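Morning, I've got a small favour to ask if you have a moment. I'm working through a protein record and want to make sense of it properly. The fold is given in discrete form, as structure tokens running alongside the sequence. Can you walk me through what the tokens say about the fold? Thanks so much in advance, here it is:
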Amino acid sequence: MNSEFHHLYETICQRQATREEGSYTAYLFDQGLEKICKKVGEENAEVIIAAMKNDREELINEISDELYHLFVLMAQCKIPLAAIEAELAKRSGKQHNRKAERRKIEKY
């Protein structure tokens, strides 16, 4: 995977270990899993909005924010980047594995 991803993940893990004062990453770890998950959800919504607005620059920024928060979640849950790389490599070899359509939601 991209060396920038490795550098980002290593930085996040370092901040998790040292809890550097004033670090947003350290703040997220101090707040815990619930806060991190909320940020992942928030960033996900922002990615969708940027995509629907067809704003390429905003979409790039929001995807970058989402990836950062996903990496924080991975570190919090002790999932190394290598595990994601291995899973993606495993999936890249699959063919004709389209999933069935989801059922429509009938009740809210």
Q: What stands out?
A: The radius of gyration is 17 Å. Residues 52 and 59 are 9 Å apart (CA to CA). The first helix runs from residue 3 to 18. The chain has a mean pLDDT of 92.
